[in-house]
From TrEMBL:
Cofactor names: FAD
Family of the protein in this entry: Belongs to the GMC oxidoreductase family.
InterPro entries membership: FAD/NAD-bd_sf (IPR036188), GMC_OxRdtase (IPR012132), GMC_OxRdtase_N (IPR000172), GMC_OxRtase_C (IPR007867)
Pfam annotation, one family: GMC_oxred_C
Glucose-methanol-choline oxidoreductase N-terminal domain mapped to chain residues: 277-291
Native organism: Diaphorobacter ruginosibacter
Record-given protein name: GMC family oxidoreductase N-terminal domain-containing protein
Length: 556
């Protein structure tokens, strides 16, 4: 930290969106940029080893350590709710899966915001601006359709966000993929063409076997060498400062920041940009008097702006983890059960940057329909050559794989609300999973799709045996209840500060991500999504930051 307390732009949160915005805004040498990150630098070795997510999630060094409120849809269970607390944010602890979502997601955003800027053909160029795809290392290897969607070395393939193939395969996953095609799911080598439908190995944000987080991509070394860029770590924003100008306009003019030793006030001459994520951004708005008036008064906070949508509209992907025992095929359960096996895993990574230590939490993916009447793929699989009772628990002693399936477009909505006026107190996170008939129906149907895939000939030689939830459960009611018992978050919270039309009373932001009624303040993170994307949410958040960077620079 320097003694400077005045900047043109203040960015709160050094995660996915904040890192890209820091890069783009500080490129203008005439503008000073301050990045504030509550966590530490990303110099923890487990951040960079792909399998290190096991040691980052649930670790106060890198995780906010949030938990949900008891959830009726999960039969009263609470869930661990990881959020990145380090440079790179969730990109430092997530599953590294590169996924844009489906074209229909963005067509819907354009409809609900009234802004064609969010249409698929328009956001595609924003994705491409920062993408560096392995297939474009040799453009001759990419077909014309791929080049149209992913750019080329001259137009979009030389960005900062590296996308690579995974560096391992598993016989059991290959067999699941073959079984899925036998069940009617087409094979694909690219989930990012606009529909996602198909089965194949995920592409990942890695570089030569190392995790590629947004701090590496956008902050280091570019921003660190710019004299107009400053970064504070271990510094938590506690309150936004909003002043009323002579013309009656309310404007965000700065931020109060707790450095661990003192409270410092910093001033923004142009904008404060909130990139703290779908949990922390609504929390900070509420602490600053921007949110539902009744909630704010309940905690003794003066109402600066009554915005009832702040903290509402929480959406997440709930994964239902079906476990199948298998025979005559290696899985990680067995491979990692001995010291010899663990030594082999370590040596393979040390010398080849491949094998289980290089793998994302989920390696194989599939997008399909939960029932034939669905007009589009509405469920996603994350398939893993392992099984365990819950994340962070030991692997099972028997060989098995897990086929986790999630509803891509849940209709359930939850909330994020402060529980205390103290900025250090965790908010109440209530996802309200499986609270609608539609979501319970998709949950039951998706388990039946899993069973249909696992009954195909390609898997028969491994004798798959449904261990969880158990083949004895067959009715919609049974399967929905069992989904509540075994399902868990896949870490995709969005929507808590959603954008929308001017006449939408629950829209927190306009279509350019500006907070309604407060000049000089934007929210640029997954909370701004009006509806969740059909897939993993990290790269769509980067796209939103890319879009926002142009609007900010153009004063829009």
């Amino acid at each position: 930290m320097s003694d400077n307390t005045e900047f043109d732009y203040i960015i709160i949160g050094g995660g996915t969106a904040g890192a890209l915005l820091s890069n783009r805004l500080s490129a203008d040498k005439q503008k000073s940029v301050l990045l504030i990150e509550a966590g530490r630098r990303d110099d923890y070795h487990w951040i960079h080893i792909p399998v290190g997510y096991l040691y980052c999630i649930g670790n106060p060094r890198t995780d906010w350590l949030y938990n949900t409120e008891p959830d009726p849809g999960l039969n009263g269970r609470t869930l661990r709710y990881p959020r990145g607390k380090t440079l790179g944010g969730c990109s430092s602890i997530n599953g590294m899966i590169y996924m844009r979502g489906q074209a229909r997601d963005y067509e819907h955003w354009a409809q609900v915001t009234g802004d064609d800027a969010w249409r698929w053909d328009n956001v595609l160029s924003a994705f491409r601006r920062h993408e560096d795809h392995w297939r474009l290392d040799d453009p001759a290897r990419a077909d014309d359709a791929f080049k149209r969607l992913h750019g080329s070395k001259s137009t979009g393939g030389s960005g900062e966000w590296r996308v690579e193939k995974q560096r391992l395969r598993w016989d059991i996953l290959d067999a699941f993929a073959q079984a899925a095609t036998q069940a009617g799911v087409p094979a694909t080598d690219d989930f990012n063409r606009g529909t996602n439908e198909g089965v194949g190995y995920f592409e990942v944000n890695q570089k030569s076997g190392w995790r590629w987080n947004t701090a590496k991509a956008f902050l280091r070394p570019t921003c660190y060498g710019r004299p107009n860029f400053e970064m504070w770590t271990n510094a938590q924003a506690s309150k936004l400062i909003v002043e009323t100008e002579a013309n009656g306009v309310q404007r965000c003019t700065g931020v109060q920041v707790w450095t661990g030793q003192e409270m410092v006030t910093v001033k923004a001459h142009q904008e404060v940009i909130l990139c703290a994520g779908a949990v922390n951004s609504p929390q900070l708005l509420q602490l600053s008097g921007i949110g539902p008036a009744g909630l704010l008064r309940q905690h003794g906070i003066d109402v600066v702006r009554d915005l009832p949508g702040v903290g509402s509209n929480l959406q997440d992907h709930l994964q239902i983890r079906a476990v199948y025992k298998v025979k005559n095929v290696p899985t990680l359960n067995v491979l990692a059960s001995s010291l010899v096996g663990k030594a082999k895993i370590g040596l393979e990574y040390a010398f080849m940057r491949s094998g289980p230590m290089s793998m994302a939490p989920s390696q194989l993916g599939a997008f399909t329909r939960s029932s034939p009447e669905m007009a589009h793929p509405n469920i996603q699989y994350h398939v893993q050559p392992l099984s365990l009772d819950a994340f962070g628990e030991p692997l099972h002693s028997f060989p098995a794989f897990t086929a986790s399936v999630c509803n891509l477009n849940p209709t359930s909505r939850g909330t994020v609300t402060i529980k205390h006026a103290d900025f250090k107190a965790a908010p109440a996170i209530a996802p309200n999973y499986l609270s609608t008939d539609a979501d319970r129906k998709v949950a039951a149907d998706s388990l039946r799709v899993t069973r249909r895939i696992c009954a195909q000939p390609a898997l028969a030689k491994y004798s798959p045996e449904e261990w969880k939830p158990g083949p004895q459960y067959e009715t919609d009611e049974d399967l929905a209840r069992l989904a509540g018992d075994i399902a868990t978050t896949i870490f995709h919270p969005v929507g808590t500060t959603r954008m929308g039309r001017d006449d939408d009373p629950m829209a927190v932001l306009d279509s350019h991500l500006r907070v309604r009624g407060i000049a000089g303040l934007r929210v640029v993170d997954a909370g701004a999504m009006p509806t969740i994307t059909s897939g993993n949410t990290n790269s769509p958040t980067l796209m939103m930051a890319e879009m926002a960077s142009q609007w900010i620079r153009n004063g829009q």
